[in-house]
Design goal:
Blueprint lengths: L2 E4 L2 E4 L10 E5 L4 E4 L5 H11 L7 E5 L5 H4 L2 H4 L3 E4 H10 L6 H9 L5 H10 L2 H4 L9 E3 L2 E5 L4 E7 L7 E6 L4 E5 L5 E3 L2 E5 H12 L5 E4 L5 E2 H18 L2 E3 L6
Parallel strand pairs: 4-5, 5-6, 6-7, 11-14
Antiparallel strand pairs: 1-2, 2-3, 3-4, 8-9, 9-10, 10-11, 12-13, 13-16, 14-15
Helix pairs in contact: 8-9
Protein name: MBL fold metallo-hydrolase
Organism: Isachenkonia alkalipeptolytica
Amino acid sequence: MLKKITERIYLLEHERKTDRPSLGLIVGEKGSMVVDSGNSPKHAGEFLQAAEKVTKGPIKYLGITHHHWDHIVGMEKMNIPSVGSRKTQSRLKDMGNWKWDDASLEKQKKDGVFNDFVINAIKGEMKEEERKDFRVAPMDIIFEGKLTFDLGNITSVMLEMDGPHTEDTTLIYVPERKVLFLGDSIYGSRKNGKFGYDREKLFMLIEAIRSLDVAYYIVSHESILDQKEMEEFFGELERASKAAGAETSAKEGEK
């Protein structure tokens, strides 16, 4: 069931057990946009079924926030024209060569791509038989910098960033409703087996987010945050980063 954030903005909330991220829906008079495709065909299908009850027209676009598996595996099932940054497209083309059977997942673990939590999540969402022929496909529409969609009495603005989580970060902003989809952008990343934040990228991202007029912040694996809660989160990150120097630890378990 979709949760209504504001008029025309809905969310299928995240689930920790199998690492399902939140999936967003921006409903316009001329068409709608989905934010991220989910971590499995099943996840994507459940979202589409729920979306049918609130959309006013066709779902025209699927906006992708970054290349990580749990945000892109549902693309084929959704079968909606997908949109993302050129950097994300490059990563998806590389991922197109990946195999997803159990043996291949174990190899990804040895190579440091996936950890046990991620592998268990993938197996929990998709049986091996489903994964044997699965391949990641490239996106349909590519942009650099900024791309705006007029959905009919509401707009969706895709903003390319270089964040501390991935270099192919895209934020999706709905100015009329003051809603910002952040994907995983405010999380850190893993380097040499350790989780941390790139201080410079973190501060630049926070500055960019603060420049937008936002009332509701949607982080893919968190509850909906209001402005006060987001500022408290930023404050904690800034204080920890300044105390630690060049890098500060992130929560283990984030990809």
